[in-house]
Amino acid sequence: MPYLVLAVLFALACAYIISQVVFDSVQDRYFNQLIASSKQASDYMVREEDRLLSTLRLITSDINVGNALIENDTGKMRDQVSPIIENADVDSIDLLDMNGISRFSLRKTKLVDLVSYQEGSEGISFSDQEFVQNVLKKVSDNLGDKFAGLLKIGDTDFLCISGPVFSRDGEQAGVIVVGTSLNAIVREIQANTIANVTLYDQNGNIIVSTLFDENNASMISDKQVSQLFSTHDQSSISREIPIESVKYTELLGVWEARSGQIDLGILGISVPQAFLVQTSQVTRFQVFVLSLTAIILIVLIGVYLSNLITRPLVKLVDTSMEVANGNLDVKVESKGNDEVAVLAHSFNSMIAGLQEGSIYRDLLGRTVSPEVREQLRHTFSSGDLRLEGQDAVATVMFADIRDFTSLAEKSDPSTIFEWLNEYFGVLLPSITESSGVVNKLDGDAVLAFFGILPKILDSQTSAFCACQAALQMNQAIVALNERRRDRGDLPFITGIGIHTGEVIAGGLGTHDRIHYTIIGDTVNTTQRIEGLTRELFTDNGVLISQATLDALGDQKERFVLEPIGRHSVKGKEERIMVYRLVALAS
Fold it and tell me: Could you count the other beta carbons within 10 Å of the beta carbon of residue 61?
């Protein structure tokens, strides 16, 4: 009910506003359009002045222009300024000597759609122009040494910017004057503002116009001119101009240049007057009632439709809160085939995916190491199902129980599984606590690597971690064998091989079954080194390769190592130097 009351009040207000807008604001909108057009015209004048100033600075920055002017070399002057003028698309340029005499000039000409530049006559004096005199007298103020003014050349009026040009020795060589045709300016403003533009001189006489011609020219009165320049940029004045059967309203303002320091004349913007709508009270009331009825209907229909949408959305929000609290045994009822039903169906699919993901996450945590699980999580979240292979230098460890096959033949399978679980239960923590990753459990054998997950480590760190883990494993096996002897079981004689080298680590398999592993010659060599423990030791033993010893660097001083010598292993032409890892150095 409060919402309906508010909706009715809103409808009444809207109906009143609509009637006011339709009938009472036509004139306001008309004058706003006129003011906006005048502002656009003034802004365009400023931009055009800045464009001419930028072109002038580009020309005067070239000392070759000044040298060519001193030498009165027309060819050089043409070569220096023509590309700049054509690229900047200005209408006029004059190069004046220090007497204000033109030594070279270019004027834009247009024949049909072809635009070109023609050289003007030399010897024309510009010394009577104030904006040229200031440059010749080397006048400079807080805005610099460039000045603006109006110039009439032939039948064409130009907005011009003048500035000094210097020779190679730093002396002023003359004056550069660049300009834009006032006809081009008013046409461009008219195209941008859809308003007529008239430029007047300081006496109120028309210079150029898109509205007036010779037959209907309308000067500004002396009183209006005086009023404009007395208030300057504080305000504008308007006047009505009848032309044939159309009345125009013209907004007049001071035409300024050089950041308001120079008054060039008067800028007039005119727009045809709109016919103001005059209506009776009955018509106003009818419009008000129709507007009110339409808005009330819209509000009522909106309330009905919003209820159709919000009710299922509220249920969806409540269900989302349940899911956020960990309850995945909820679903949203989806009816129909609209967007809300599609959203509900997608939400139910999301819940099913979360349930499946929860199961997978539980299974994954039981089957792979935490490091591999984290790597998988990052890979899946990035949208790449596969674990990309990467080259890395790692330290690989391989451990195996000697003569386990013959031992297993004498025991039942359940006992074998119990022994192996006990065996791995004491071995694997030593690997993971030393930043290692258990890659594979193959029967009684363990393959682990160091220095890849969860981040790449340098070879010295990976080798040290592997050696440290091997000594801890050796101690754990000794303690385990003591317990086995006490139970009357045979000990597990274990050999451990360690080797450092390049491997390729990544996911192998298909999109629905990926196994993270390492491959390469380093893995094979590690297994061969572990195999040497069967030949060299009768008890538990750890062998490391020369590559691992080299990788340890100064860290090898922290271990007790015994050189065993060079031995041949399967798959290697050269014999491998191996060392027995005995213990940590005291």
Answer: 10
Residue-level pLDDT at 504:
92
Nearest partner of 581 among 502, 515, 496, judged by Cα: 496
Span 501-522, pLDDT tens digits: 999 988 787 766 777 788 999 9
pLDDT at residue 105 above 80? yes
In three-state secondary structure terms, 353 is helix
Cα 56 to Cα 77: distance, rounded to the nearest angstrom: 14
- Cα separation, 26 vs 18, in Å, equals 12
Least confident of 16-20, 83-87, 391-395: 16-20
Structure tokens given for 62: 């070239």
| Furthest-apart CA atoms within the chain: distance in Å | 129
Q: Is 174 strand, coil or helix?
A: strand
Asked if 453 and 372 touch (Cβ cutoff 8 Å), the reply is yes
End-to-end Cα separation, the chain, in angstroms: 86
CA pair distance 462, 456, nearest whole angstrom: 9
Is 97 in contact with 124 (CB distance < 8 Å)?
Answer: no
Give the Cβ contact number of residue 416 at 10 Å: 17
Read off the pLDDT of residues 308-357 as tens digits, 9 standing for 90 and up.
777 777 777 888 888 888 787 788 777 777 777 788 788 888 877 776 66
Q: How many CB atoms lie within 10 A of CB 345?
A: 13
Q: How many CB atoms lie within 10 A of CB 387?
A: 21
Label the pairing between strands 172-181 and 92-96: antiparallel
pLDDT, position 275: 42
Instruction: Please choose, from the candidates 259, 269, 266, 270, the residue with its C-alpha nearest in 3D space to the C-alpha of residue 226.
Output: 266
Map out the domains of the chain with their CATH numbers: 46-183 (3.30.450.20), 281-359 (no CATH), 383-584 (3.30.70.1230)
| CA atoms of 309 and 303, how far apart (whole Å) | 10
DSSP character for 296? H
Token pair for 25: 């604001």
Residue 6 CA to residue 2 CA, distance in Å, equals 6
* C-alpha–C-alpha distance, residues 473 and 477, integer Å: 6
Write out pLDDT tens, residues 112-162. 567 788 887 778 899 899 999 999 999 998 889 999 999 998 889 999 999
